[in-house]
């Protein structure tokens, strides 16, 4: 589409309850439109007052997704990047905290010339400006905006008003509204109930917005009568009532929407050219559902009872599994339960690979170190992420280098051998939010290493989120005893990747490789880790 063609906006809103999958819906619509050759980006509008989720408890918010520019964002941005294969930045996630902070900073500077600052127009104008900023200058044909929370929440009202104003400004053929709702099944009466969706649409219309499409999450297929009823009371064409039943993989969602002509409906409304092509995803799902191998991977960490805390790792396993014709069966392991070598043997004895998850704090740290020891001594394929690298270094220092009680100063400030120490740049920092080593940093890879064999290039860029690092004072001793530093950041002289040359596959990175894995291309480290795990499976059986 040409530069003079109006930008098209798709607003994905939610009703009834939270957690219905608006992020997956937005990402899936983005995938469909991109498959038609359109340039697509996605923006998440979050009503909470936190500036970003960086300091929020994973139990409340799930995973913090880090972007190349160092922004700590909502986990839905991970879905966006994985589906539409686009590196995003801080402009792709706007929170109420950011919006209000910007407006109040301007007021303090006197930018408003003494005017009374109000939600309308000052807050809504700022929201609209952030929606437009994402495509200034114009790079995209379509901007998809997902609004967190549910319609009717007091926190989301300014966002809804901003969308109402923007919809009026751009016109009928330049915007469309997709409303994600719930159609519950009542067992006692054995019927689907449309009333929650009706009330949700009513609330939406009260604030001046009407859905053009209703995406109904449901346990059972929607009958023709149910669709007609939702359409009648929701003022929507019944053909635009789309059922969202449970699927085995989130990567089936675009295919489900495709079969219900969602892409065609949106493209007709927005007068968009192109033809949808979902052949790659169809092939991907076919391989996912009929794998040749089943590998068992131990996921060792701190928040193991909350899978959303490690959402990107789980998705990276799916991508890597498909590329290796394998289904990755995840076994959650709380490292607090590993207190001895016997515990490790009991837990890991049937595993084909061990992944040590990222995290902070000392809880379960000794169990993490024992996990590294088991993987090293028993030749089990191992991948360590961030803290996983640090624990691998501690274990090697203690049990191979003879540095008894070696540790990280994060776990023990008085350790006699601080092989992991606080980064120099972090020592004077007191504030918590956005102050870690965040975002993309370069790494040079040594040729002839397992790491190089994975990436097939000497210079890479990966995303980080940490404060502690390998202490260079111990680097020579570690290397003399057989630890291979296979990747470094030259600018800061930081250890980025370590591996064991004599081990079938033992690699750990200070960064987060899971954040750059895509449905179109598995991350090289995850791909080769699962490849090694499949090989280990074959050897064991």
In short:
With 541 residues, the chain is an alpha/beta fold. 36% of the residues lie in helices and 22% in strands. The protein has two domains: 8-282, P-loop containing nucleotide triphosphate hydrolases (Rossmann fold, 3-Layer(aba) Sandwich), CATH 3.40.50; 293-540, Rossmann fold, CATH 3.40.50.880.
Structure, explained:
- The structure is a single chain.
- The N and C termini lie far apart (55 Å).
- This protein has 2 domains: 8-282, Rossmann fold; 293-540, Class I glutamine amidotransferase (GATase) domain (Rossmann fold).
- The radius of gyration is 25 Å and the shape is globular.
- It has 18 helices and 23 strands.
- By secondary structure, the protein is α/β, with parallel strands linked by helices.
- Helix 1 (22-35) packs across helix 9 and helix 14 (365-377) crosses helix 15 (387-399).
- A 9-stranded mixed β-sheet has the order 13-12-14-15-23-22-21-18-19, sandwiched between helices.
- Strand 21 (484-489) and strand 22 (494-499) form a beta hairpin.
């Amino acid at each position: 589409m040409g530069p003079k063609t109006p930008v098209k906006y798709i607003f994905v809103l939610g009703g009834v309850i939270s957690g219905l999958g608006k992020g997956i819906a937005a990402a899936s619509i983005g995938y469909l439109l991109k498959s038609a050759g359109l340039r697509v980006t996605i923006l998440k509008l979050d009503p909470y007052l936190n500036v970003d989720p960086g300091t929020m408890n994973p139990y409340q918010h799930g995973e913090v997704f880090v972007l190349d520019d160092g922004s700590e964002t909502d986990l839905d941005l991970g879905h966006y990047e994985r589906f539409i294969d686009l590196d995003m930045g801080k402009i792709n996630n706007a929170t109420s905290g950011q919006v209000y902070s910007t407006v109040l900073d301007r007021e303090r500077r006197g930018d408003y010339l003494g005017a009374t600052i109000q939600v309308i127009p000052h807050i809504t104008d700022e929201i609209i400006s952030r929606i437009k900023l994402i495509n200034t200058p114009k790079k995209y044909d379509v901007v998809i905006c997902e609004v967190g929370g549910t319609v009717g929440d007091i926190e989301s009202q300014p966002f809804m008003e901003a969308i109402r104003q923007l919809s009026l400004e751009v016109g009928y053929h330049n915007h469309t509204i997709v409303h994600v709702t719930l159609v519950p099944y009542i067992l006692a009466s054995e019927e689907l109930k449309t009333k929650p969706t009706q009330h949700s649409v009513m609330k939406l219309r009260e604030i001046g917005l009407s859905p053009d499409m209703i995406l109904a999450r449901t346990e059972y297929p929607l009958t023709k009568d149910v669709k007609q009823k939702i359409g009648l009371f929701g003022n929507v064409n019944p053909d635009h009532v789309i059922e969202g039943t449970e699927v085995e993989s989130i990567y089936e969602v675009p295919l489900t929407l495709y079969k219900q002509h969602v892409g065609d409906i949106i493209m007709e409304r927005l007068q968009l050219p192109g033809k949808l092509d979902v052949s790659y995803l169809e092939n991907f799902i076919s391989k996912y559902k009929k794998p040749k191998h089943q590998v068992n991977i131990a996921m060792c960490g701190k928040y193991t009872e909350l899978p959303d805390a490690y959402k990107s790792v789980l998705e990276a396993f799916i991508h890597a599994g498909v590329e290796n014709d394998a289904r990755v069966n995840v076994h959650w392991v709380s490292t607090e339960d590993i207190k001895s070598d016997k515990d490790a043997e009991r837990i890991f004895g049937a595993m084909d690979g061990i992944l040590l998850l990222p995290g902070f704090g000392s809880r379960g740290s000794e169990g993490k170190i024992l996990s590294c020891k088991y993987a090293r001594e028993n030749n089990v394929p191992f991948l360590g992420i961030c803290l996983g690298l640090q624990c691998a270094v501690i274990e090697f220092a203690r049990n191979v280098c003879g540095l008894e009680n070696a540790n990280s100063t994060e776990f023990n400030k008085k350790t006699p051998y601080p092989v992991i120490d606080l980064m120099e740049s972090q020592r004077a920092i007191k504030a918590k939010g956005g102050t870690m080593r965040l975002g993309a940093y370069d790494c040079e890879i040594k040729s002839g290493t397992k790491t190089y064999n994975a990436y097939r290039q000497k210079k890479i860029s990966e995303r980080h989120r940490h404060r502690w690092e390998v202490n260079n004072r111990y680097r020579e001793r570690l290397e003399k005893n057989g630890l291979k530093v296979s990747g470094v950041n030259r600018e800061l002289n930081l250890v980025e990747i370590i591996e064991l040359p004599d081990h079938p596959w033992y690699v750990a990175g200070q960064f987060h490789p899971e954040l750059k894995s895509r449905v179109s291309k598995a991350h090289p480290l995850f791909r080769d880790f699962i490849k090694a795990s499949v090989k280990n499976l074959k050897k064991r059986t």
